[in-house]
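hey
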C-alpha cells in the first residue's frame, strides 16, 4: 500500500496546491544550485564505483572481477562495450528470472523497447533503484524548469502524461512488463495522482484508436498546465481536442497551460506547429532525453540545451563516431571518453551503465556536446541512422533540419517523414534521395520544397554539396507527399500493433526499406 494514500483527499484543496507550488519553487532553486556547484566528472567517477560495489557479487560482477576495480580505468579495462544481444544471450535468457545476474535482487519491472529499424522487442530490466533514478531525473527536469520560470505554476492544475497502456501484465516470476511510461505511471504516489491525468481507467485502454478520442474529450474538461509525450502523438491529441470542442486553439481549452515536455525524437519540425496549435506565448517547451536503459539528460532552460544528469546512479561513456565503420558497426577497441574528457562539437555515441544491470551498453544514440562545464548537449540521431549511399555522409540531425527549413520556407507543417536512396537504373543517370513526407493541410509546391531542402543540406554538409555539383553523382531530391499518419500505419502493419513508442525509421542507407514503404503506401492509396 502506498504510504501517501491518506494525503490524497487533501491535495485538491486550493490552499494546499498553492503551498505545494511554493514549496516546489524552493526545492527547484536548491536543486539547481546543487547542480551548478557539482563537479560532474567527480560525480560520475563516484557513480561507477558505487555501481560496481553494489553488483560485485552478481554473476556479471564475478565474471568481470568487480572486486578488483578501484577506478574508472580499472572498470574500462575489464568491461568491454556491448549491445543488448550480448546481455540477452549471456545473462538474461532466463527472462523474467534474472535475479543476481547483472544486478542484485529481484527485478520488479521490464521495460519493453522496440528498435526503430529492426522492430525487435527488447526486454530491459528496471530495478527498484532505477525507479528511484528516473524519479530523481524527473525532479531535476521540473527543478530546472521552475528555477528558470518560477511564476509558471504547475501544482495549480494537472500534468498530462500522454503515455502507453499502463495495464502491465504480470509475468511468471511476479515481475511486470510494459513500456517505460507505464512503469512511471504505476509508480506515481497516491498523494500525487490528483495532480496528474489521465486516470487509470483511461490510461489502461490498450487500443490507441479508442484511447485517443476518449483522452481528447476528457482532457478538454481538465485544467491541464503541462503535457508530456512524443511529438507526433501530442500533435494528434491537439487536433482531436480542437475538433471535439470547436475551439481554434489549445489556449482556449487550457488557458493555464505552461509547459510542453517533449522527447524521443527530433523536434525541429514540430516547434512552429505547436506554437500555432496552442496559440499562446504563455507556455515553454522543455526537452527531455530518456531511454529505457536510463535517463540521460534534461533541458536547462537557461541555456536552451539538454544538460547531462550526472548524479542519479547512471554512468556515461562517449565513443567518437569515427570509431564506427560505414555500416554503423563499432570497431574493435574504441576510444571511450568519460564526461571528464569530452570535447565540444564532436559527435559521440552514448554508452550507458545503470543501476539496473546494463554495463557499458551501447544504446544506439549519438549526441554532440555544445559545452562541457556544465555538460550541455543536443541529440544528433542514431548510430545507424545515416545516409551515405553516394558518399554524401548525411546524419539524421542534418536531414531533420533541412526538412524543417523547407517546411518553414514553404509555410507548411509536416508530420513524419522517411528518406532513402534511389540508385541509378541505367548508365550515366545519377541516383537521388527519395523523401516520403507527411504534410498537414495543403501540400506545397514539391519542387520548391525539394529545392529548399537541397539548399539547406548544401549549407550544412560539405560532402553533400560536393556530390550535388552539376548533378554529376547525385541529382536533386524527390519529395513524395504522403497522407498524415500513413507512415505510422506502415510501422503498425509491420509490428502488428500501434503504441506510443511507435517511431517511423527516418533514414535507410540501402534504399530497400524506402522502396518497401513506398510500395505499401501506393498499394493502399496513401500517397497524395
Amino acid at each position: 500500500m502506498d504510504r501517501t494514500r491518506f494525503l490524497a483527499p487533501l491535495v485538491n484543496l486550493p490552499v494546499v496546491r498553492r503551498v505545494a507550488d511554493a514549496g516546489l519553487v524552493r526545492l527547484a532553486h536548491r536543486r539547481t544550485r546543487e547542480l551548478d556547484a557539482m563537479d560532474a566528472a567527480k560525480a560520475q567517477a563516484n557513480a561507477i564505483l558505487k555501481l560496481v560495489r553494489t553488483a560485485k557479487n552478481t554473476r556479471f560482477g564475478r565474471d568481470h572481477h568487480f572486486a578488483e576495480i578501484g577506478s574508472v580505468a580499472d572498470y574500462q579495462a575489464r568491461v568491454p562495450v556491448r549491445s543488448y544481444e550480448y546481455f540477452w544471450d549471456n545473462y538474461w535468457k532466463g527472462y523474467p528470472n534474472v535475479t543476481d545476474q547483472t544486478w542484485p535482487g529481484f527485478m520488479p519491472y521490464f521495460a519493453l523497447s522496440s528498435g526503430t529499424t529492426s522492430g525487435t522487442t527488447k526486454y530491459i530490466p528496471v530495478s527498484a533503484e532505477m525507479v528511484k533514478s528516473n524519479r530523481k531525473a524527473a525532479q531535476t527536469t521540473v527543478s530546472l524548469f521552475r528555477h528558470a520560470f518560477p511564476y509558471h505554476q504547475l501544482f495549480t492544475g494537472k500534468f498530462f502524461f500522454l503515455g502507453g497502456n499502463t495495464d502491465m501484465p504480470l509475468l511468471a516470476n511476479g515481475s511486470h512488463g510494459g513500456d517505460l511510461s507505464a512503469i512511471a505511471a504505476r509508480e506515481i504516489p497516491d498523494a500525487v495522482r490528483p495532480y496528474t491525468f489521465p486516470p487509470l481507467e483511461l490510461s489502461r485502454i490498450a487500443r490507441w484508436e479508442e484511447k485517443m478520442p476518449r483522452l481528447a474529450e476528457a482532457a478538454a474538461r481538465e485544467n491541464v498546465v503541462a503535457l508530456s509525450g512524443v511529438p507526433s502523438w501530442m500533435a494528434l491529441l491537439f487536433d482531436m481536442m480542437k475538433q471535439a470542442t470547436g475551439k481554434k486553439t489549445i489556449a482556449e481549452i487550457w488557458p493555464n497551460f505552461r509547459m510542453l515536455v517533449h522527447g524521443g525524437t527530433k523536434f525541429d519540425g514540430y516547434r512552429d506547429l505547436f506554437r500555432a496549435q496552442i496559440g499562446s506565448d504563455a507556455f515553454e517547451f522543455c526537452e527531455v532525453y530518456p531511454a529505457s536503459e536510463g535517463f540521460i539528460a534534461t533541458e536547462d532552460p537557461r541555456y536552451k540545451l539538454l544538460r547531462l544528469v550526472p548524479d542519479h546512479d547512471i554512468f556515461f561513456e562517449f565513443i567518437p563516431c569515427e570509431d564506427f565503420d560505414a555500416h554503423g558497426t563499432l570497431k574493435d577497441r574504441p576510444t571511450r571518453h568519460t564526461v571528464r574528457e569530452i570535447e565540444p562539437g564532436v559527435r559521440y555515441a552514448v554508452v550507458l551503465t545503470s543501476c539496473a544491470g546494463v554495463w557499458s551498453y551501447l544504446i544506439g544514440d549519438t549526441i554532440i556536446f555544445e559545452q562541457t562545464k556544465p555538460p550541455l548537449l543536443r541529440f544528433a540521431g542514431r548510430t545507424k541512422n545515416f545516409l551515405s549511399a553516394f558518399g554524401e555522409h548525411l546524419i539524421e540531425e542534418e536531414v531533420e533540419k533541412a526538412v524543417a527549413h523547407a517546411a518553414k520556407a514553404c509555410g507548411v507543417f509536416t508530420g513524419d517523414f522517411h528518406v532513402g536512396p534511389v540508385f541509378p537504373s541505367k548508365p550515366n543517370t545519377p541516383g537521388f534521395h527519395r523523401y516520403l513526407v507527411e504534410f498537414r493541410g495543403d501540400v506545397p509546391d514539391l519542387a520548391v520544397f525539394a529545392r529548399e531542402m537541397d539548399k539547406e543540406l548544401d549549407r550544412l554538409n560539405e560532402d553533400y554539396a560536393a556530390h550535388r555539383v552539376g548533378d554529376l553523382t547525385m541529382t536533386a531530391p524527390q519529395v513524395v507527399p504522403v497522407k498524415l499518419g500513413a507512415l505510422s500505419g506502415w510501422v503498425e502493419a509491420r509490428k502488428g500493433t500501434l503504441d506510443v513508442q511507435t517511431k517511423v525509421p527516418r533514414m535507410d542507407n540501402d534504399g530497400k526499406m524506402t522502396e518497401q514503404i513506398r510500395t505499401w503506401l501506393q498499394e493502399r492509396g496513401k500517397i497524395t
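The chain has 17 helices and 19 strands. Residues 386-523 form a domain with the GMP Synthetase; Chain A, domain 3 fold (CATH 3.30.300).
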